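Why do we bother with a discrete structure alphabet at all? Because it lets us treat a fold like text: something you can write down, compare, and reason about line by line. To make this less abstract, here is a complete entry for Transglutaminase-like enzyme, putative cysteine protease. Read it the way you would read a sentence in a foreign language you are learning: slowly, and without expecting to understand everything at once.
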Amino acid sequence: MRLKISHRTEYGYDAPLSYGLQRLRLTPQSGRAQTVITWEIAVDGAREELRYIDGFGNETRLISIEGEPRSVAITATGEVETADTAGVTGPQRGFAPMWLFEAETPLTASGKKIAALAKGLGEGDGLERLHRLKDLVADQVEYKTGATTSATTAEEALKLGAGVCQDHAHVFISAARLGGFPARYVSGYLMKDGEQAASHAWAEAHVTGLGWVGFDPSNRMSPDETYVTLATGRDYRDTAPVSGIRLGQALETLAVHITVEQ
């Protein structure tokens, strides 16, 4: 399936911004499940300073904001050819060692609730256990916008019993690691009807003989041809499409517009 994607992020400020630095992980890479046909990133109100591949294999750009602008707009557009591989994306790429995906991070640290959930993996082969976990996460964490923030941990989301795709991914990753599987966070896109206000997120676990396999508890499925991967990492902080710092007292507003269509 060929998908056409448009992702626009707009920042507005009520006073001139003296300086800011933002990191963009907005460039998909070709792989087993997707081939990038065209991709372009346009920036208004800032300039690109550096472009590199990070330790997880993600193309990353740094842009600086100066000259006291009152708005910054970042627009990523392109076309990606996708394939349904039943969620299998293959072997590890990048410089990150596999043990890194077995270790906890602040967002995926396990507690009593995660430990209890991990016991639900039960017996069976790797795929069977991980699909069981995917459904358990969906059962125990209701999809509810506004219930959590980007700083909510996996344990907190599970205790709350509510969250969004980021929380589903973190809970799955934390429990999968306790169950003996290296696991990682994936940011990307999912084709839906109409405009979207945020990108999507899911998890991947490393299964012997297959490599990385994706699991999306939010939709109770493994990614198919309607998904596009942007970046992977240990948790959300390694994969955020746009993140950064700014100097000054200006109040910031944010608007995100995403469309994914065939």
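What the structure line is telling us, in plain words: The domain at 2-82+242-261 is CATH 2.60.40.2250 (Immunoglobulin-like). The chain has four helices and 15 strands.
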